[in-house]
Specification:
single chain, mainly alpha, 0% strand
């Protein structure tokens, strides 16, 4: 009997226990390690997913912008009424905004009268910026319009210094030299050059950068309801109501089937391309704001520079725009200057 008990005790001592003997046991440590691994794996998956989403948004931003410029140029070639075309784009954008609010695809905003008054100057310069861009696109090649629009950093620096007191660093000033020189070189050798298209694009630069300055000056204190997309939505609707009366007074009602037929145009083709251009116009701007919510302004600026390169190259290939070697060099220098500008903006001035 004692032998049996001794054997049983030996068996008990030699068999590992299925349960941890204390809180510091082996099994508990394994569980902690497994939990840490799971957390790291979840973080990696989330990072990968965020990267894929951001990459997809950049792709859509570029794609919508390319198609907007192509369809828009095709419409303006046969229907040279930029005020009407711009109004149609704001009208379609307003319908898209109301559709999103109605179906709760985006949070329904709550906005006060004081906020609407603050937004009004932004809507005005937004309207002018897009109108001048369409006027330029109707007069010169798409590639040339976007080359001139590479001057935006120059006007941003000048207007910020004038109205916000933000003095540029020497590095920023130096980065403006290749931008200005490149645009000047491209303009002198541009086959489609005319002064109306040139000054319209320049006016677009001033308007767009005025919008950015006004955003900082008047919209510094924003309520939670006014996120970037909501702000853009209100600006779109207000731009339509601002421009519609101007359209009636200047160009009249020229977008009717009867008028288009009398001008010898394919009504269906003009309508379809105008609709697609308007949808792409609203989509690329909204996606741009979505990207801005995920990345820093500097990263967004670099992405915008790359987008301009992509639009210029695709438009040259699609429309078979004649480009001389010197013109290409000028455009390349200007775009390189824009990229340099986006990088040196990160350099903070030393405090005295």
């Amino acid at each position: 009997m004692s032998q049996f008990n001794n054997a049983r005790e030996l068996c008990w001592l030699s068999t590992p226990s299925p349960l941890p003997q204390s809180d510091d046991g082996f099994l508990v440590k394994a569980a902690d390690s497994s939990s840490a691994d799971d957390v790291e794996a979840d973080k990696s998956k989330k990072l990968l997913l965020d990267t894929l989403v951001l990459g997809s948004l950049f792709g859509l931003w570029y794609l919508f912008n390319i198609y907007f410029n192509i369809y828009n140029k095709q419409v303006l070639k046969v229907f040279p009424n930029p005020i009407t075309v711009t109004t149609v784009q704001f009208a379609v954008g307003s319908v898209i905004v109301l559709f999103m609010w109605t179906l709760n695809l985006h949070k329904r905003p709550k906005i006060s009268a004081s906020q609407l008054l603050a937004i009004l100057p932004l809507a005005l310069v937004h309207t002018l910026g897009n109108l001048f861009t369409n006027m330029s696109l109707g007069k010169v090649a798409v590639s040339f319009t976007h080359t001139i629009k590479a001057m935006e950093p120059f006007f941003s620096v000048v207007l910020s210094a004038m109205f916000l007191g933000e003095m540029p660093t020497p590095w920023v000033v130096a980065s403006l030299l290749p931008i200005t020189g490149g645009v000047a070189l491209a303009s002198m050798t541009e086959a489609s050059f005319n002064w109306a298209g040139f000054w319209s694009a320049m006016a677009s630069n001033v308007s767009n950068q005025s919008r950015n300055v006004l955003s900082k000056k008047f919209m510094v204190k924003k309520e939670e309801s006014l996120d970037n997309i909501t702000l853009f939505s209100f600006i779109t609707i207000m731009s339509f109501f601002l421009l519609a009366p101007v359209t009636l007074l200047t160009e009249g009602v020229r977008f009717t089937p009867a008028y288009l037929q009398s001008a010898g145009l394919n009504v269906q083709q003009v309508y379809v391309r105008s609709l697609l251009a308007a949808i792409c116009f609203h989509a690329y701007q909204q996606v741009s704001y979505m990207i801005l919510q995920r990345v820093s302004p500097v990263t967004h600026s670099v992405g915008n520079c790359v987008k301009r390169v992509v639009v210029i190259v695709t438009s040259v290939l699609f429309f078979r725009t004649p480009v001389s070697p010197i013109n290409s060099i000028g455009t390349g220098v200007a775009l390189a200057g824009v990229f340099l500008y986006s990088q040196v903006k990160r350099i903070k001035p030393k405090k005295a």
